[in-house]
Each structure stands twice: as structure tokens, then as C-alpha cells.
Specification:
2 copies of one chain form a homodimer. Chain A has 244 residues and is α+β, with helices and mostly antiparallel strands. Chain A contains 7 helices and 11 strands. The structure holds a DNA duplex (30 and 30 nucleotides).
Chain lengths: 244, 244
DNA sequence: CGTAAATTTGATACGTTTCAACCCTCGTGG
DNA sequence: CCACGAGGGTTGAAACGTATCAAATTTACG
């Protein structure tokens, strides 16, 4: 039962080039080198694709900030993920061939779009490409596991802190400034993502401000200053294991 | 900037065979036909792979029931997913090359294991294979989004009901009986997965039993009888949109 | 069979939601 | 230029649901 007639990969395997730690950089580099893509500029609140529409292309974020949103039966929409430079958008359409989420730009940005068919073709000639896309999807899986875990175990304050920490770490990974970050999100959106109400997010942020872990910018309370990333990190870690 | 020198997939594209609705069946069929795999039988509570160990192989569930578990800092472990015949295990190791979860059998079962390298190779000759694996990962992503949504918006009772419903639907998809299902899980494990305490799961199940939506089997309270799947489905839907 | 573990159920404590009032900013139009 | 209204944000008080603690009961297993 365990002897397929086709003998593809049965021979000796030479070692494969490992993927670098910085997935986002590899994605952009490999895409530019090996895949024919179309560029697309997007404005604030512009939709990349819409829930229910047929899926046929993936989008690599070249710059900007994006979210995907679930439509809950009530008609309201709930953010289900946030994405930065080098992240991929559109995987939700793969299983069924139709998108099960919408994707939207949180500020202006640019996408490199490629037909899914074409990407699969291209990856035949460049196996590293497929490893990369697999790694990108799997990373999103891992991130979701983290969020589920934090939603299941942390208090509202800790969830908000953890959310900001992850956001800042994503920016840091990409070489962007982390001492002052613009979330482009309302309290209600943050809460919807974390499974708490907007008032609770507001209270959590106020308490975090009280401890000095974060500060608000004068003009917009959506811009958060983080004096010390390590301070934030320690707060989250303390919240994760209060009982030892 | 958008003219890669390599011309892989630039030509006309013939239509690709669509993946059938039943992913699990395709996975088993394609695997058997095109990939050299090794069989492995597992006993109850046997570990498939362990968190922290290097990753190099994926496992397709040929029979049985499995869970993956996260290790939370406290030392306790938290289930992060449940998997059935035709599902894949091991994706968590792809991004970093090391497993970030452990996988464990909930009862006896069988796995078809394949080195990740070899699978990628095999998919060069059989592109449908790669579409399939991508669809499998993306499905896990979609499932995680569902769970996050339910953890963020539903009451404990509704979460438990939703959990059982999904479990039953997974079994139904695979042609297994759904009128009496054995979860092989303690109340604490269910609660840990859903983000509530074991006592709350117990209460939720008691209340569901009270409404007649489910019943317990005499001998083991881990075996749940579902007189009407539609009844359960309606209950979950009512819980999803209480307002209006 | 006896002991440890799991489950159920109750009473209370705690945290988040809900409802409400108020403030602030910003864009619009008088 | 300022008045005005709308939407987002902050904060308070009460209601609600779940966690926590505890005890009784059942089940699992050597």
C-alpha cells in the first residue's frame, strides 16, 4: 500500500537553502525576481477584495497597512487580522475558491498582485518560492493560534497590551519605528479583534497610560507612544503568568 | 520593475482540475497515488511530534482523532485544534523549522507521514498536490478565524454548542455517525480550547442537556448524543444573533 | 475494591458589559 | 468666523456572566 508507482522525490535530497528569519524580505525579493506581478496602489479604506467574490489572485504587501474583516451575521464587521509589508493577503479564498473575508487598506499602500495559478506555475521552476508561500500561510496560522490563546487566557488589559506589543514587534521586524505607532484603528475595532468592548479597550489603554507603559499623542489618540518596548514586553509577560 | 527575467508561467493557462468539495478525500487519494509515505500506527495519548523538536515531516491522518496543544508558560497545556481523517498535522513547524506545538492522538489511529522536502518535490510533477496542501493549510486558517470569532462574541453556552456542532459537522463530512460522538476530552480540555473554565463547560453541557439539544451517554459523559443536528445548529444560530 | 481523578452543583467574588453622561475633535454650513 | 452636529473617546454606576472556591458525587484505574 505504501509504494506509489511514481518515483518523484525518492532520490537523495540535497540540502535546501533555508529561509531567512525575515520572511517579509524574502517574499518581496523572490516575488520581484521570479514572478510576474501587477502593481496596485490603494488609498485609505479602499477594499482589496470583498467577501463572497470569487478568488483568483494573491496580494503581497509592498507597503502600507491592511486588515481583513469578517462579516458577522448582525451586519457589523469584525477585524480578523492585521498585515504589514511583506505579508500576503487572499489566502482565505483558496479552500473554496471564493473569499470568506474582505481585505481593506488602513492607510495608503501598494500591493504586488499575482494570479494564484501563475504563482503555482512559477514555483515549479523555483521551489524556494513555494516554501516561502507555505511559510507565509503557516505564519498566519501561528499568529492566529497566539491570538486565540491570548483571547482565552488574558484579561482585557493584558490582551490590549499584547496586541500593541505584537504590532510593535511586527514594525520592528521591518525596520520601522516602534516608539510611536499609529494604529489607524478605533477603540471599537481593536475591541472587536480582541473580543472586548470599546469601553474596555479605552479603560485598558488609560490604565496602561497610568503605569507609564504607553502614552498618547496629543492630536490623535490612535497614535501611541511606547517609551520602552521592553517595559511593555515585561508587562505582558507578568500578565501571562500571574499564578506562577 | 515588473518584468522578471524568468518566464515561467507567462503563457496561456489551461484550466486546472478544481478541488472537490471534500478535501479530506482528495488528500488521501492524491497522497496514496503520488507520494511515497510511511505508515505509522499510534495509540491513545501517543505523541506525533513534540513542541520544540525540529520539523521535517508532515502527517496526513488516515484514521483516528488528534489534537495539537500549546504549552502555556504556566506549564499547563492548552489544546489549539482538533483533527480528523484527511487532515494534515505538522504545519506549525514550517515557518521556523521547529515545532511550536505538540500533536497527540486522542485515540488509536494511523498516520501517513511524508518528509516535507519530498512532498514539495512530488508536487512539481503533480501540481494538484500543491493546490491541495495549500487548501488544507488555508482551511485550518479559516477554522481558526471561526474559533477566534466565536471566542470573541459568544457566551460560554454558545461556545460549547458551537464546538460540538463543528465537531459533528466534521464527522458528517467524513461519513461518520453524528448522533453519538465521543469527544475523548475532559471538560477542562474543552474549556481550555474555548477559553472558559471546566466548571463552565460542565454547566453549559448541563443546560444543553436540559433543553434536550444533547444527551449524555450512561457510562461516559464524554460521549454525547445529538438527537437532531439541526436542533443544535438552530441553537447556535440563535445565539449568534441575539439582538434584533 | 480503594484511591485518585473527573464531574456536577452551589455560593460568592470579580471583571467585563451595558447604559449613560460628558468631553473633545473635526467638518459643515450659516 | 463661529455655531452646530456627528462620531469617537473617556469615565462612572449598575447589571450580568464567568471565575473561583468548596463540597458532594461519580468515574477511572491499578
Amino acid at each position: 500500500m505504501n509504494t506509489p508507482s511514481i518515483a518523484h522525490g525518492a532520490g537523495a535530497l540535497e540540502p535546501v537553502r533555508p529561509l531567512a528569519h525575515l520572511l517579509w524580505r524574502d517574499s518581496l525579493a523572490l516575488m520581484k525576481q521570479f514572478v510576474p506581478f501587477t502593481q496596485r496602489k490603494v488609498r485609505v479604506n479602499e477594499e482589496v477584495y470583498v467577501c463572497g467574490k470569487p478568488f483568483d489572485t494573491l496580494h503581497l504587501i509592498s507597503s502600507g497597512l491592511f486588515k481583513i474583516v469578517n462579516l458577522v451575521p448582525d451586519g457589523r464587521e469584525q477585524p480578523a487580522g492585521f498585515f504589514f509589508k511583506g505579508d500576503w493577503l487572499g489566502f482565505d479564498g483558496i479552500p473554496t475558491g471564493s473569499h470568506t473575508c474582505s481585505a481593506m487598506a488602513l492607510d495608503m499602500g501598494e500591493l504586488w498582485s499575482v494570479r494564484y495559478d501563475i504563482l503555482l506555475r512559477a514555483s515549479v521552476g523555483e521551489p524556494q518560492l513555494m516554501r516561502l508561500v507555505m511559510a507565509a500561510i503557516s505564519s498566519q496560522l501561528a499568529r492566529h493560534r497566539d491570538v486565540s490563546l491570548s483571547m482565552g487566557t488574558l484579561s482585557a488589559d493584558a490582551r490590549v497590551a499584547d496586541f500593541i506589543l505584537h504590532w510593535a514587534l511586527s514594525l520592528e521586524e521591518r525596520g520601522m519605528r516602534t516608539d510611536e505607532i499609529d494604529l489607524h484603528l478605533s477603540r471599537a475595532e481593536i475591541g472587536s479583534y480582541l473580543g472586548v468592548r470599546s469601553e474596555s479597550v479605552s479603560r485598558a489603554l488609560s490604565r496602561l497610560k497610568g503605569t507609564g507603559i504607553i502614552q498618547f499623542q496629543e492630536s490623535s489618540h490612535r497614535v501611541i507612544r511606547i517609551p520602552s518596548l521592553d517595559g511593555l514586553r515585561e508587562f505582558v509577560q507578568r500578565s501571562t503568568e500571574p499564578s506562577r
